[in-house]
Design goal:
mainly beta, Jelly Rolls, eight-stranded mixed beta sheet, 1 helix, about 10% helix, about 40% strand
């Protein structure tokens, strides 16, 4: 499978699980419990962490309760095996929390280095081609390439250190532009920011 195929597969899987909402309808018409949980995972490359049952590993950028930003790897789990569009054959389908607000493309040109900033809101970033990185205020760096997934949830970051860095610094990596698909989520009104790195869809 080439890089384009892996990126397309990752984008399709994440779009499917994001657009379909937070739960499923039970037989009695009531909303059932969410079909996917978010659990911590050890540091490691993003992508499919396991296939039977599947676990989708992703990078997350988040702010702790002191306003410092950090990077972490987490796993999306609890897929169910069902037909996504009957009578199609069954496949693994998952439903992470969060409601999609918008879907955009972004291109970081070769040599791009941004300025320190926080994410405008909770958002998934799926790398389609090229490479990019984010540096957190604690100095940790998350770099990703085609087919990898990252969640931005550092909205609670505050100025840190003598340079007053806030949030993260984005860089394009390598000799080709970086192309991203960004899936922004709607903030949930009345819900406090959750600094847990593996609860990114609950801003």
């Amino acid at each position: 499978m080439d890089q384009f195929d892996r990126a397309s597969l990752a984008a399709a899987v994440l779009l499917a699980v994001c657009v379909n909402g937070t739960g499923a309808q039970a037989a009695d018409g009531k909303t059932a419990e969410p079909l996917m949980t978010i659990e911590p995972a050890p540091s490691g490359p993003a992508g499919l962490a396991s296939d039977k049952p599947p676990a989708l590993r992703y990078g997350v950028l988040y702010a702790d309760d002191k306003g410092h930003s950090h990077v972490q790897y987490c796993d999306l789990k609890n897929f169910i095996f069902k037909s996504y569009a009957p009578p199609a054959a069954p496949q693994y389908v998952g439903f992470p929390p969060g409601e999609v607000a918008s879907i955009k493309y972004a291109v970081l040109p070769v040599g791009y280095v941004g300025t320190w900033h926080t994410a405008p809101g909770p958002q998934w970033v799926i790398t389609l081609s090229g490479r990019w990185s984010v540096e957190a205020t604690d100095g940790s760096v998350l770099e990703q390439g085609p087919g990898e997934v990252e969640f931005n949830a550092d909205m609670g970051s505050t100025p840190q250190g003598p340079e007053k860095h806030v949030g993260h610094l984005t860089r394009q990596v390598g000799d080709v532009p970086n192309v991203q698909l960004i899936v922004s989520l709607k903030p949930q009104a009345g819900q406090a920011h959750d600094a847990s790195p593996c609860q990114p869809a609950r801003p």
